[in-house]
């Protein structure tokens, strides 16, 4: 039956094969002894006939996801803060790197590693990666909920640490915390047509939702580089979202980020440092603190450092504290975006020192005080060259 649909498509461009196939059809119909079959076949909608190419599928999916983002409420992505500039330009997400690179700055090792992974993709793979990464981040932000058990890491290996960390953070900082969700950002969610339909429903015309969801899962498996959702580039990030954004207050932790941080040797501090940083954005959100400079990223580095070093936080020893500052440095960039490696390292170390040098190790500085203290310190943490750059 499949051949019937192919050759009867009126706008078929397969002119060279049409003749032979028509002859084939003619014989088949004659054998079937019915003209009714022809009418039946002609009634099949055009979309059900010619198999599309991978290129066509990716192009259509890009259109669908762009339209989805365009259909979101205006405040959906406002102040939603990713941990790093994604090495793959995510469909629907804006880059903050507005200026050229800072002279003399070397980007962090995690960014170098991620950019190297991305550079090996073909243009088609790159587009598919960006569009599906944008789609999965929107699922994580707008559909996923921690009311269902969250699984962190590709094999759930980080779930206990993530669960313990968010519980500790909720008790640590004096902000409204019960409704800050911690959700897993998983590329494998792209394989669920039901989850993708929920995601497209956030902004795409209802009549297009099911086809778009089916196409997303189709592309996930027809581009082998995507590894069925397990390529770390799909989820190589984490983000924090404020109350009035789509999905409300939440921290999302990407499986791909945890994979790559592990590869780079920071596994034993990854979950606590990253969730501690992202929760630091919640501290800023709670106080309406939205600085328009690198302190918007360095502040959460500092609050996270304070948390992991503090007796009532993770109470890490000097060795682990140092490792955490190197992880901070590894995600530094050179684009006046999220802070340079040196700046981020300095901010994390400053936060740790606030914990280890205070008279009463069990006292937790009120979050408003911590913000004010950091804003006072921040100009000193800017290396002179970078401050002028
Ligand atoms: Zn951040």
From TrEMBL:
Annotated spans, Disordered: 338-363
Name the record gives this protein: Uncharacterized protein
UniProt KW Signal keyword: yes
Leader peptide range in chain numbering: 1-48
Keywords on record: Signal
Source organism of the structure: Amycolatopsis saalfeldensis
């Amino acid at each position: 039956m499949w051949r019937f649909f192919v050759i009867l498509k009126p706008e078929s461009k397969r002119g060279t094969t049409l003749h032979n196939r028509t002859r084939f059809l003619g014989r088949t119909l004659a054998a079937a002894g019915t003209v009714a079959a022809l009418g039946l076949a002609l009634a099949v909608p055009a979309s059900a006939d010619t198999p599309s190419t991978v290129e066509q599928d990716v192009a259509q999916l890009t259109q669908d996801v762009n339209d989805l983002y365009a259909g979101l409420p205006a405040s959906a992505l406002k102040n939603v803060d990713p941990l790093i500039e994604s090495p793959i330009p995510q469909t629907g997400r804006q880059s903050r790197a507005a200026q050229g690179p800072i002279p003399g700055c070397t980007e962090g090792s995690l960014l170098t590693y991620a950019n190297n992974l991305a550079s090996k993709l073909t243009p088609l793979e790159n587009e598919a990666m960006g569009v599906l990464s944008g789609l999965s981040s929107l699922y994580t932000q707008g559909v996923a909920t921690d009311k269902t058990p969250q699984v962190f890491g590709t094999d759930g290996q980080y779930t206990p640490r993530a669960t313990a960390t968010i519980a500790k953070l909720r008790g640590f900082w004096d902000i409204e915390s019960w409704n800050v969700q911690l959700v897993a950002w998983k590329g494998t969610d792209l394989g669920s047509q039901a989850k993708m339909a929920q995601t497209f429903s956030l902004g795409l015309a209802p009549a297009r939702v099911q086809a778009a969801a089916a196409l997303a899962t189709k592309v996930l498996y027809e581009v082998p580089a995507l590894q069925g959702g397990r390529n770390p580039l799909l989820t190589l990030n984490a983000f924090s979202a404020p109350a009035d954004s789509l999905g409300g207050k939440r921290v999302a932790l990407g499986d791909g980020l945890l994979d790559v941080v592990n590869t780079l040797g920071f596994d034993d501090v990854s979950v606590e440092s990253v969730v501690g940083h992202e929760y630091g954005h919640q501290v800023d959100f709670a106080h309406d603190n939205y600085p328009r400079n690198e302190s918007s990223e360095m502040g959460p580095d500092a609050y996270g450092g304070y948390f992991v070093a503090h007796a009532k936080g993770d109470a890490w020893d000097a060795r682990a504290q140092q490792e955490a500052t190197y992880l901070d440095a590894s995600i530094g960039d050179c684009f006046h975006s999220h802070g340079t490696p040196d700046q981020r390292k300095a901010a994390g170390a400053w936060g740790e020192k606030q914990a280890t040098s205070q008279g009463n190790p069990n006292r937790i500085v009120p979050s408003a005080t911590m913000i004010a203290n950091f804003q006072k310190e921040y100009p000193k943490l800017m290396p002179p060259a970078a401050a002028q750059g």
